[in-house]
Amino acid sequence: RLFYGMAAQSVKDTIRGRLFNLVGNAIYIARDNNKNDYEALEKEMKNKNEDINQLAQRSREIGTETFEMLIDNGEIAIIFPEGSRKNKTEEGKNQLQMKFKFGTVSMAQKLGCPILPVSLFHGKNGKSTIRFGELQFVTREESLDDANKKLESTILNMTLESMNELNNKNSKVK
């Protein structure tokens, strides 16, 4: 079964974008303050009369509406709650996990659909682990801040479990 994901417009023609399209369907949007996204969006839409910031805003709105419609119709969606790759900056490379944005929990709350927390950890020597948590629901009464902290904590704990598991396996091999 195919899945859907949302990604920055600038990754569409990269290896990541092509891989995304091989295993699913991507909805590409222009992100804030990303010149490459704006340029790619402008080239694709070929509408030079409209202000590029308006194009980017419209791109995000249409992308989000389309994504929500797919989820509401029972499609599988993959959302990366950090909203970006952490290895873009030196600070990000040194973090285990970046702060989560609110898109994941706000969509789950709005649509009444569950979140399946997933942690993918790449350890040393090419070893990786993937962990799946328990479904999390965000009720209408729940604050998005609390729901986001719970999701962030759940995934961080799963990642720490993976790190410990890989470190224990590596120390036994030596």
Could you characterize the architecture of this molecule?
48% of the residues lie in helices and 14% in strands. With 174 residues, it is of the alpha/beta class. The strands form two sheets. Strands 2-1-3 form a three-stranded parallel beta sheet, sandwiched between helices. The chain has a two-stranded antiparallel sheet with strand order 4-5. A hairpin with a 5-residue loop joins strand 4 (118-122) and strand 5 (128-132).
Question: What best-fitting shape do the alpha-carbon axes yield?
Answer: globular
Q: State the helicity in percent bands.
A: 40-55%
What about the largest sheet?
Answer: 3 strands, parallel
Assembly type of the chains comes to single chain
Instruction: Give the DSSP E fraction (strand runs of 2 or more residues).
Output: 5-15%
Given helix and strand content, the structural type is alpha/beta
Pick out the low-confidence regions.
none
Distance between the amino and carboxyl termini: 41 Å
Computed CA radius of gyration, to the nearest angstrom: 18 Å
Count of individual beta strands:
5
Individual helix count:
6
**Side-by-side strand order of the widest sheet:** 2-1-3
Order of helices and strands: EHEHHEHHEEH
Mean pLDDT: 79
Ordered list of secondary-structure elements with their pairings:
Layout: E1 3-8, H1 15-23, E2 24-29, H2 35-45, H3 52-72, E3 76-78, H4 90-93, H5 103-111, E4 118-122, E5 128-132, H6 144-173
Parallel strand pairs: 1-2, 1-3
Antiparallel strand pairs: 4-5
Helix pairs in contact: 2-3, 5-6
